[in-house]
Amino acid sequence: MSGHDVAVIMARVLTLITTIMMRLSLLPDFNRWRKNQSTGDMSVMPSVLLYTNCYALLFYAYVIDDMLPLFVTSVLGVIAGGLLAFFFYRWTDNKRQVIKIFIGSFIVCLLVTTYATLAMTGVTGQSNSSQGSTLGCITLTTTVGLYASPMTTIARVIRTKTSSSMPFTMGVVNVINSFCWGFYASLVGNWFILAPNIVGFTLGSIQLTLTFIYPNKPQANGQVISPGANAIATTVFQVLTIITTILMRISLLPDFNRWRKNKTTGDMSVLPSVMIFGNSYGGLFYAIAIDNWLPLFATSILGVVVGVLLTVFFYHWAPNKPAVIKIFIGAFVVCVIITTYNVLALAGVTGQSDSSVSTTLGFIMIAATCLMYASPMATITRVIKTKTPSSMPFTMGVVNVMNSFCWGIYGYLINNMFLLAPNIVGVTLSVIQMVVTYIYRSKPSKDDQVASLTSDYLQDQGELNVVILSPKQGDYEDIGAKDYCKSPSFVVLHSPSRGRRN
Q1: Given 56, 92, 315, 373, which is the most exposed site by the fewest CB atoms within 10 A?
Q2: Is the pTM of this model over 0.85?
Q3: Is the Cα dihedral 303, 306, 311, 314 positive or negative?
Q4: TM spans, by residue (predicted)?
């Protein structure tokens, strides 16, 4: 796999994560609408354009055969946009204006549907490439509209000198999302994706600049207004923790892919998989206790699901199943104890206050988080002895550095030492793993270099020396690579007659 292919895969993952976040970026505003039973001075345009843009992208993704990330995230956007628009109408004071915007969106969607249906059934006589270009121009327009939608009230912002009518979280996520999509588009050479995201990055940056220019102001009517510097930093790191935590939850996928191909887990330990589950399982209860649904509860659910799947497949391909079962039993006992305490505490049986319960769960979280960050180093003795880090999951180590750093900053900003403390340990342990990996980095042996031939090398050389060993020379097959392979263009092939003798 070339460096470009790796970059495309990484960009796909990042765009998938940031786009999911963008589709859900109006949830903080939705929560405010629900609490106040009013949408305040916000416009319905972000919700409507979220739906409209994603609806058009469904057809574009289908035509260019981009199921992931484009089609999948567009389905989510259609659902989220539809629900947000519905609840906006329910709680808005200006329903007549909202209905006019709904009608406009309906007409656009009807036109897109009509054209796409006729084009894909061959009525327009266009080629698949021509259909993609036409739909690309349509989605370019709707995407720019989506990125511009948080700024539909910019005149009011400048007049009132407060950015309360602009959805701040959506603006932050738009900057990150448009950057990732622009990077992905440049890698795959798609200008219909690149162009609107350059505009989106610019518009998102302008919105954040306006938020700083017109900072928080107290108002007599209690209206929610633009956040201050600390709130902005908190929101930014809340977004970053979601991104890095999702990456951490799936950081063992490269190792899983290797297990699947080799049908064995090799010399890796099951602890990283088990601790992803254990840490996330404990995080669910702690998130409930401190009322932190995003990012803590949401990412913990993902961790539980991924952890279970990884441990099941690890056991399936593990060469030492009895040792794995022992760790499973230990994890099960710990989870039973945590569950029992949490149920009793949250039900009030222990007689603890909410603060006391959250403190106890916080200490449990510290232990679970530290163990999770330490789990990639479960085989460090073997690494030092064999002088190879193959038993330590490298990707998980890299992601752990970023994830623990973001969680540490987020914990500091919201003044939660139970989030800050274990992530300081996490940064330290992950950096140690990176240092150990560098010290004992993989170096191909001479035998491996002789035995392995890349297709690029063969193409460059244009020739290949072959020696045929007869069945009588079978005694040499174990040492043939060492004794007879004097050049990198030497390959041993056994005679076809071998194995056919009666």
Answers
A1: 315
A2: no
A3: negative
A4: 6-27, 48-64, 70-89, 101-121, 133-158, 179-204, 224-248, 269-290, 296-315, 327-349, 355-374, 394-413, 419-440
